[in-house]
Design goal:
homodimer; 384 residues; alpha/beta; Aspartate Aminotransferase, domain 1; Aspartate Aminotransferase, domain 2; three-stranded antiparallel beta sheet; globular
């Protein structure tokens, strides 16, 4: 039984429901950010971040910084882009566009590989783009939270390495880390940026990122200074290295409470093999998607291989308005999200199924949500 | 009685000890960042931020963003500085220098008005500097956490307005907001940047800032784009305005738990007149400083009028090493901070007395800390 007060289950694609122990860590009594107990906890958290990315490469570097997932985009733009550098952005929706907007602020010359809403750019067209120009970075939104489209990373990264080996492979993993497989070293990724409040299962407030040695060297060998102070990886790197070596260090004050909560969440996530965690997310996702199909509804992500496993974006029947359905679901104790992709915004809703709601067998909220969705559609006259 | 587990009292100049209710809010169950309950709480928190700055000017704008206090510097640099703009930095120590470093990243041409360690630049020399050049901004570190030096804002801002009315007056209030008086409108300030974990009494993780209408207009009328994505005030402004008007809005995911905790902390801070809060901090500060003096010790901030009321930086006797004293205090359940100003780093310690430790009459930790300091100095042979 949860020790939390009764509340509507938050099944949006982040923030997600939290485990009791994680929320208890959020209320940790005050401690010095440079005291030995917190330094040890922060250091351990950084080491667990390596495990989360299935990485053992000592030249790779985790960063845990107060901020939101969006700050991760600035970490890429401010550090890896110099004015005029070319960036190839694989566009799967709202969040790919946002990432591109951020890169442009730092002077990137952005080229898109676009795809129709609900699908993703395919390897041949991406390869053609890479052959046509030298790109410093290629960015891919692993799961675009606006559409539930999953991008494929393994074959993509192999193709990029063969076609344009200098190009850095950058992943927006905000809605994928801890629910979709990421083998950072094996796939040869150069950066993954994510946030605490999605499948990792820690409340919002932390930007979590992971950079390859090659990416770090790129920052160090810039011709112009890094274009930010707070998002400058070189300001944070000695701090992260010291904390991981259990030495106090200061650049900007971390949040002991959020880091304690992340520590608890990562311990839980790593308590079983990651392969089992990913398989469980796929199993529950399959159940959700089957239920959606049984209700006669279509997903925004059309092809099975393009469908994320931590969320489902669902087209509504023509007769049902999101603005009517969502309040009915909320009254039934289930919080879904509305649409956010501007081309289809009023036509769909988003159902997040990540983290503790998926992994804890005592949590009934996924099944309850499926039942509530059915009941809501019945109430609105779509189902009889 | 506190419901927190027994722990050493954190009496560093931030993070500080937290009230039980604030820590309980940190463990708030999950909620959607765009759901009505959270939107109402965030909106109310923004309105309370106006009250904290004693501001009723509707053109002024509060910002509450996931990040640390340092992010506030970037908000100033990225938004108010264009390449080559002149900034006059009043230098009172480590944090004034850090602020200047940040401004330089965004292209500022920085001029310092320096002062010997433990004092602050004086009005005549500041005025002379303002007369010699057109400065777009002047920055003042209200309390420099590295030295405990308090800067005077009221006469300073009047002088700046008379001498150089176009110059924007920017205050680093990280270690002053909620323990030193700030009358934002009355004094004609243009921006104050602060953080959650000091006198405001909420755990670290939020950058809190307040900008005048004049400052916002300056951002809007830039010749070049704002030099950051995450720290771009124009990205955040409609979001903050919508939340304050109780309308959901999205740019980057806020932290519901941290905002709930800030809401609780601000309600507590505003439950008595701010004048009483400032007077209580002065009363306790006077007690601490008298005890320090009675022990035969000197403060880093030499003159009474330059001494902060939320912290005390204390020179150690020649015979006592900080590296010996601090662990003894820690064993006695009192966490002080070491020195951080590079010219005097090993010679002094810092004692924070802000927030609940000062305001809650049931909290014995300030008196305990004074006693522990005396006992520690005795143990190390300084006092007999």
């Amino acid at each position: 039984m949860s020790s939390q007060p009764p509340h509507a289950a938050v099944l949006i694609p982040g923030p997600i429901e939290f485990d009791d122990a994680v929320l208890q860590s959020m209320g940790h009594y005050s401690e010095s950010h440079v005291g030995p107990a917190f330094v040890a906890a922060f250091g351990e958290t950084l080491t667990m971040t390596r495990q989360l990315f299935q990485s053992t490469d000592p030249s790779a570097q985790p960063f845990i910084v107060s901020g939101s997932g969006t700050l991760g985009w600035d970490m890429i733009g401010a550090n890896l882009i110099e004015k005029g550098d070319s960036a190839l952005v694989l566009n799967t929706g709202y969040f790919s566009n946002g990432f591109a907007d951020c890169l442009k602020v730092y002077g990137a010359d952005v080229t898109f590989v676009n795809a129709p809403v609900g699908s993703r750019p395919q390897l041949p067209e991406i390869q053609a783009a890479l052959k046509g120009k030298n790109y410093k970075i290629i960015t891919v939104t692993h799961v675009d939270t606006s559409t539930g489209v999953l991008s494929e990373l393994k074959n993509l990264s192999r193709m990029v390495q063969e076609t344009s080996p200098e190009t850095l492979i950058i992943v927006d993993g905000v809605c994928s880390v801890a629910c979709e497989e990421i083998a950072f070293d094996e796939w040869g990724l150069d950066a993954v940026v994510t946030a605490s409040q999605k499948a990792i299962g820690c409340p919002a407030g932390l930007s979590i990122s992971y950079f390859s040695g090659k990416a770090i060297e790129t920052v160090k060998s810039r011709k112009t200074p890094v274009a930010s102070y707070f998002a400058n990886l070189l300001n944070w790197m000695p701090i992260m290295q010291n904390y991981e070596n259990k030495k106090p260090s200061y650049f900007a004050t971390p949040s002991p409470q959020l880091v304690r909560a992340l520590n608890t969440a990562l311990k839980q996530a790593l308590s079983t093999p990651l392969s089992e965690r990913f398989a469980k997310h796929k199993e529950v996702s399959d159940k959700v998607k089957e239920a959606v199909s049984d209700l006669g509804l279509k997903q925004v992500a059309g092809n099975v291989e393009d469908q994320a496993h931590g969320m489902t974006a669902i087209y509504l029947p023509d007769s049902v308005k999101a603005t009517e359905l969502l309040p009915i679901l909320s009254k039934a104790g289930v919080v879904f999200a509305g649409g956010i992709h501007k081309e289809i915004q009023p036509k769909y809703i988003r159902f997040g199924h990540m983290g503790v709601s998926v992994m804890d067998p005592n949590r009934p909220e996924i099944d309850n949500a499926i039942a509530a969705l059915k009941a809501g559609l019945t109430q609105l006259g779509y189902l009889v």
